[in-house]
Design goal:
Radius of gyration: 17 Å
CATH topology: Rossmann fold
CATH superfamily: NAD(P)-binding Rossmann-like Domain
Distance between the termini: 34 Å
Structural class: alpha/beta
Helix content: 40-55%
CATH architecture: 3-Layer(aba) Sandwich
Number of helices: 8
Amino acid sequence: MLDLKGKNVLVTGGSAGLGAAICVRLAQAGCNIAVNYASRKEPADQLALKLQKEHGVKSVVLQGDVSKSGACSELVEGTVRELGGIDIVCSNAGWTKAAPWDDLDALSEEDWDRTFAMNVKAHLFLFKAAKPHFLKNADGGSMVISASVAGIKTTGSALAYSVTKTASLALQRGLALHQGPKCRVNSISPGLIMTEWAEKQFDRQKMDWVTANTPTGAIATLEDCADAVHLLCANKSISGQTIVLDGGFTLR
């Protein structure tokens, strides 16, 4: 039984898309939720209110740019202060700038630095801040990273994105191996999923091509991904693993 009732969770990038779906799924499981946002306060506020009304859990909103180490520490401490503790960190916030893979000048040094800060360093900073609290918990703690099939296969919106998603999986494995036994670290690796960002970036022709080349004939939904996060948060026998949600696309 995937029981998480009463657990306190921080979800970064939680105001929309996959982050919002994770918030909803874990609230359904009885978790109290700290919804992090960087700049979109209104949807974060609306989501927190919805979680409280529909699921009877405590939900708070925390602003912070996870590309900054100090902000990561403040988000963890804010979660502890507002919810009374922290059991789970869903490190979901990320960043990319779509660019042609064959154009090495398409991304600036600043673009590479921001991609690495958001997609790799943020996970480390959040874990470091949460670890002392995890060690105090009777059941320890869990981190779930939102990775990508771009970290497994040479694909994705840009070379920098794929490189950093690969690095995030290496980080996950290293933390899981050396930071136990009271700390578990896992990830989900979705393929193309229909977030607000994806709908703006990819036309119908691209979507049809991905679907046609997916063995199941369908891409994963946000809810599929959120269900996988729930499993990783609750199943204490899983650590250092990623769940690929791509309908078998990366098998080709």
